[in-house]
Structure to design on (330 residues):
């Protein structure tokens, strides 16, 4: 029997990671206070000793207190789930890249054969932008967390998927989990290339390795082991798992309804620049030379600090604060 776990778009955006429990901090403070009182009592007990003995005793006491303090407050530094130098942190901490990743994913997943799972809960069709932003916050809670917190977050995803599967009395296909994971890898790479430059071979391997760990943490089956193997499987999934259907039309209608006509047309143009040729053909997207030219001037936009203007053109006002919170750049 397949374990009810894995990666799925429909529930990934529902869950937001919990904050760290602060109980350890309070315990350390209490312990530290006890040590301070012990130190004070020892000092009082040697008050009547001669000067030399006092000096020697004080030195010994200070050494003991320092030793106890170190034991009482052990290092809380834990290994990061994603290394600080990783290209994944740079990509997923950049609000502009995050928006592009989900613009591309919104186009492709509308074509996926498992898109009906989104309509089972109904949350993405009702509020696609809100659910998208919840997904971003959740993904960042994995990428920017330490190992322990990231694994707890992945476990919660598994539990949520199991809950949805039990409600529907069906199992989410393994290939659907891989499709979503593959999208996040691919559009991370495509977004970075569109705005900045192509990733180096080492950066591509780093990107793949991080998402491979995420997939393994979600118990996604039959994952490729190398970036080269992923490229082959990604193309296979694109050709096999995508088609235009009634749910595709319904999702794009929900995008248009929530974005408005102008922002919706801009979304289509951005998607046309991002998505693979097969997706572009299925959705009949045609890149616009004007939009392409604007992307080429992105460096100027950044240097003039006009990104908030661009966000305002693409995102409804009620989500502007959310976009600003995506910024994790150092």
């Amino acid at each position: 029997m397949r374990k009810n776990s894995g990666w799925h778009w429909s529930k990934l955006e529902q869950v937001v990671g919990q904050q760290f429990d602060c109980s350890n901090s309070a315990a350390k403070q209490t312990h530290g206070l006890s040590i301070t009182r012990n130190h004070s009592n020892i000092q009082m007990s040697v008050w009547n000793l001669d000067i030399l003995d006092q000096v020697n005793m004080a030195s010994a006491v200070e050494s003991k207190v320092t030793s106890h303090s170190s034991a009482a407050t052990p290092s809380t530094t834990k290994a990061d789930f994603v290394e600080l130098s990783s290209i994944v942190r740079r990509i997923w901490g950049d609000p502009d890249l995050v928006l592009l990743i989900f613009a591309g994913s919104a186009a492709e997943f509308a074509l996926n054969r498992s898109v009906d799972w989104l309509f089972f809960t109904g949350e993405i069709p009702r509020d696609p932008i809100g659910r998208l932003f919840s997904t971003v916050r959740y993904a960042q809670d994995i990428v920017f967390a330490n190992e322990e917190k990231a694994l707890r977050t992945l476990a919660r995803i598994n539990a949520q998927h199991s809950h949805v599967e039990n409600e529907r009395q069906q199992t989410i296909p393994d290939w659907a989990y891989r499709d979503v994971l593959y999208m996040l890898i691919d559009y991370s790479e495509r977004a970075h290339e569109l705005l900045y430059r192509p990733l180096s071979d080492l950066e591509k391997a780093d990107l793949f390795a991080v998402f491979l760990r995420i997939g393994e943490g979600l118990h996604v089956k039959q994952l490729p082991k190398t970036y080269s193997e992923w490229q082959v499987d990604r193309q296979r999934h694109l050709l096999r798992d995508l088609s235009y259907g009634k749910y595709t039309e319904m999702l794009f209608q929900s995008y248009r309804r929530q974005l408005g006509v102008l922002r919706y047309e801009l979304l289509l143009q951005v998607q046309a620049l991002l998505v693979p040729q097969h997706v572009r053909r299925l959705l009949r997207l045609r890149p616009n030379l004007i939009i392409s030219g604007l992307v080429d001037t992105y460096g100027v936009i950044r240097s003039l600090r006009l990104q908030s203007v661009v966000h305002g053109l693409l995102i409804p006002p009620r989500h502007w604060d959310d976009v600003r919170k995506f910024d994790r750049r150092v």
In short: Residues 23-45 form the longest helix (23 residues). The chain has two domains: 23-72, 82-325. DSSP finds 19 helices and no strands in the chain. The CA atoms of residues 61 and 67 lie 10 Å apart.
